[in-house]
Write a structure and sequence with these properties.
The chain has about 400 residues and is α+β, with helices and mostly antiparallel strands. The protein has helices spanning about 5-10, 20-30, 50-55, 60-65, 75-90, 130-160, 160-180, 180-205, 220-230, 255-275, 320-325, 340-350; strands spanning about 35-40, 45-50, 90-100, 110-115, 125-130, 215-220, 240-245, 250-255, 280-290, 295, 300-305, 305-315, 355-360, 365-370, 375, 380-385.
Length: about 400
């Protein structure tokens, strides 16, 4: 190459940008967080980015060995969408497509964006945008609305039920003093059932506590270690509890006692689910996810939720029929459960400005909590972090 030729490239005007070189296309696609595939005119997978490997649970080498119909369910709308793109010669989108299958996993609901590839006749590029996170965050708002309903119900119950119950209990105790031996069992039954109703109302009254939370920087690993000690000394005595911690995490901006309540409840639920599992294991994990933001109701702010805390177990999983409603009050799969434990957990997480979600399948149930971090301001006061770990 001559000096003049080299200089002409350097001196090219800024208004005439070069087309991205083909050798840069793969790194760019690999940097995308969404799965991208390209299929040939016979629907054989010709390309897959890194996100597609994770999404389809297969390596690029394995993906490119098969056709698209191997990875999506029989008769999937994705296959029809590809045919429509070829026929129209233009981009077509399909929303909320369920491509769940035993091969790639459950709860695989995606938005699909399909476009023809001009350089390869008959080829179609597909981008899948999982809807899981968006839908779960939407459900959080529903859970919080349900919790507010329980708040009103709890206030009413406390006033309208507890007072007459105390009278019923007192009358039963007076009757027991003069009752025959055979009748005392009945008076004790009345007393015990009255006490049980009062305890239920007391648990519901927790939902009506609307006082601001006293928050401070909290070391989440200290919280989890405390929960682990409590669990191993009681309900999880025979269960292995493992840790997968990111030691570089900043403090969480929260209330230590309430955080302990959250994870103790989740650990207890996991232990109860593992009752008949021979190799029972609970795993506490922490990690940093800087890409999650949530709109704050009533303002234009977007709350950063970079801290991820998980409680995972290898039990049988949450029943399908209640999975979407597991954080709603009075929803439970336990024989004698009240259905308030996870509803309270969701309320506390919401009061912290966080989000809780559940992914469940046999041998792998994960409760995932996303929360704001804390950082020290220049004036020495703390605030929730808006991004980054510094």
């Amino acid at each position: 190459m001559t000096a003049g030729a080299a200089g002409s490239r350097k001196d090219a005007p800024a208004s005439a940008p070069e087309r991205v070189r083909p050798d840069l296309a793969a790194p760019v696609l690999d940097s995308l967080p969404h799965p991208v595939l390209m299929v040939d005119d016979d629907n054989h997978v010709a390309y897959a980015n890194l996100a597609a490997e994770s999404f389809f649970r297969s390596s690029v080498a394995f993906l490119t060995r098969y056709g698209l119909d191997y990875f999506v369910p029989f008769g999937s709308p994705v296959l029809t969408l590809v045919d429509q793109v070829r026929a129209a010669g233009s981009s077509i989108n399909e929303y909320k497509v369920d491509i769940s299958s035993p091969r790639i996993g459950r709860e695989k609901v995606v938005d699909v964006y399909a476009s023809p590839v001009a350089e390869r006749p008959g080829a179609v590029a597909l981008m899948f945008q999982p809807r899981t996170m968006a839908d779960k965050i939407d459900r959080q708002l529903t859970h919080r609305g349900a919790a507010r309903t329980v708040i009103g119900l709890a206030a009413m119950l406390a006033h309208e039920i507890k007072n007459p119950l105390s009278g019923i209990r007192g009358a039963a105790q007076l009757l027991e003093m003069s009752a025959a031996d055979d009748d005392r069992a009945l008076t004790r039954l009345i007393t015990d059932e009255a006490d049980r109703i009062v305890q239920l109302v007391d648990r519901m009254e927790v939902f009506s506590d609307e006082r601001p939370i006293a928050r401070e920087p909290v070391n989440i690993h200290s919280v989890l270690e405390h929960v682990k000690r409590l669990s191993k000394s009681g309900f999880a005595r025979s269960i292995r509890i493992a840790e997968e911690y990111d030691p570089s995490l900043p403090p969480v901006y929260g209330n230590r006692d309430q955080l302990i309540q959250i994870f103790l409840n989740l650990a207890k639920n996991a232990a109860e689910a593992l009752a008949d599992t021979p190799d029972a294991e609970i795993v506490f994990s922490t990690s940093f996810r800087p890409g999650i933001h949530l709109s704050v109701p009533g303002s234009n702010e977007r709350q950063s939720l970079p801290l991820e805390f998980c409680v995972r177990d290898n039990g049988p999983g949450v029943p399908d029929e209640i999975r979407s409603y597991i954080f709603d009050p009075f929803v439970t799969s336990k024989t004698n459960g009240s259905g308030l434990g996870l509803a309270l957990v969701a309320k506390i997480v919401g009061d912290h400005g966080g989000v809780i979600e559940c992914d469940s399948e046999p041998r792998k149930t994960v409760f995932r909590i996303l929360m704001p971090a804390w950082r020290e301001q220049a004036g020495g006061e703390g605030d929730n972090v808006a991004g980054g770990m510094g």
